[in-house]
Design a protein that fits this description.
The protein is an alpha+beta fold and 122 residues long. The protein has helices at residues 12-28, 63-71, and strands spanning 36-47, 56-59, 75-84, 92-102. A four-stranded antiparallel β-sheet has the order 1-4-3-2. A hairpin with a 7-residue loop joins β3 and β4 (92-102). It is flat, with a radius of gyration of 22 Å.
Length: 122
């Protein structure tokens, strides 16, 4: 199925969602999932031309960025992504800024033994 706009092209927000999802998947691979959470902090999208055919998105992280994500408690970095259409052109240019931070610790409830309510006889 295709998500088309009024110009019979791929809708702009669908292209932005592809870019966001691609960077998020890559970024999320390096965020320690038991202790940290990834957050999309900002996205910059420049719409250049109408997309033709299928889209492909490729996101990249440098080794230094991967190490930074895994070795610091929190931070943010720009994850570049290239989106191309079937003609090899880039209909949009994007940068997604992703952040990571430690998860908030949740309070655990002390287990208390509750007395069951009295039963009524009918």
């Amino acid at each position: 199925w295709h998500i088309q706009n009024h110009l019979k092209g791929i809708h702009a927000t669908a292209m932005a969602t592809l870019a966001e999802s691609t960077t998020g998947m890559l970024f999320g691979l390096y965020v320690p999932d038991r202790t940290h959470i990834p957050l999309l902090k900002s996205m910059t999208v420049h719409y250049k031309k109408r997309a033709v055919g299928d889209l492909t998105a490729v996101a990249t992280l440098t080794n230094d960025q991967k190490d930074q994500i895994q070795s610091t408690a929190q931070g943010a970095l720009v994850v570049p992504v290239t989106v191309t259409d079937s003609t090899g052109q880039e209909p949009i240019q994007c940068e997604m800024e992703w952040a990571w931070t430690t998860k908030k610790k949740t309070k655990t409830k002390e287990t208390t033994k509750e007395t069951p309510p009295p039963q009524s006889k009918l």
